[in-house]
Amino acid sequence: MTGTVPVLETSLSGLKLIRRGKVRDVYAVTDEHLLIVATDRISAFDCVLPTPIARKGEVLTALSRFWFERLGHIIGHHLVTTETEQMPEAIKGYGAFLSGRSMLVRRTEVFPVECVVRGYLAGSGWKDYLREGEVCGHRLPKGLRESEQLREPIFTPATKAEEGHDENIDESRMSALVGLDVTETLRATSLRLYKEASEYARSRGIIIADTKFEFGRDSTGSILLIDEALTPDSSRFWPADKYEPGHAQPSFDKQFVRDYLETLDWDKKPPAPPLPTEIAEATTARYLEAYRLLTGKEL
Ligand SMILES: Nc1ncnc2c1ncn2[C@@H]1O[C@H](COP(=O)(O)OP(=O)(O)OP(=O)(O)O)[C@@H](O)[C@H]1O
Ligand SMILES: [Mg+2]
Which residue's CA is the closest to the ligand 1 atom numbered 11? Predict the structure, then answer.
């Protein structure tokens, strides 16, 4: 059973809220475990919208779980369970509300880098390339077009900025933050994860243009894949049948939202305007479709 009422914000008494992100609310459960709740919030142009996208939190949770399991032979992950009946007592009471949208995870010490892998030239990678001909120290051939596939995927780490935008860094700056050994491990692991996931997704009609992984170290010293994995929120998903380099690609999940917002006279600063019901419903349908295409199952 999953909750059918959209959830914009959670407030779970008895648990300590340690972070409210744009989409997810994170609670401390014990010294060893966290609860990550994916709400139905959506952001566009870096602003959280006041309108929930029903079932989005479920899609993010189920997709992360799908990938953690599928890629578990490459690296261990933090997920303990998504089943509220198997969670500690303090959480069980909220079962109906949290069901389907929550992950109990092993708590780790997070490495302070976003491990981005790019197979295509888009977003800040495209901007860096236009300006400097390179991305995070990777010199690229001249004359590449926007959204063009790279000959090989590249590892393009970024700092985790508390405020504002993450900054792309090269591997020497990453090494200064986490050490050379960890840098090499995270780079090799991120590339393997991306290659395997993107080949699989491509066979299901979705291009994963780029994605961001996070890693942490658990209390036993092991490095784990943490956070969410290969969701539309942490990646650029493009419909493969519409792929055409030379311009920006339609976003698999948020295109209706962005197109609608572009028709308004809104300065892209908070507060963001609400979405009409039909735009919100069409967006829910896109998230569910991404899940169905990737997993071959209905959620
Ligand atoms: N296993 C873990 N141990 C410790 N911290 C974790 C773990 N998994 C995820 N986190 C942290 O939880 C936080 C998730 O919240 P975050 O603010 O990123 O939410 P979000 O919904 O992705 O919003 P935003 O778009 O603002 O990033 C991140 O800081 C991430 O590093
Ligand atoms: Mg985040």
Answer: 227
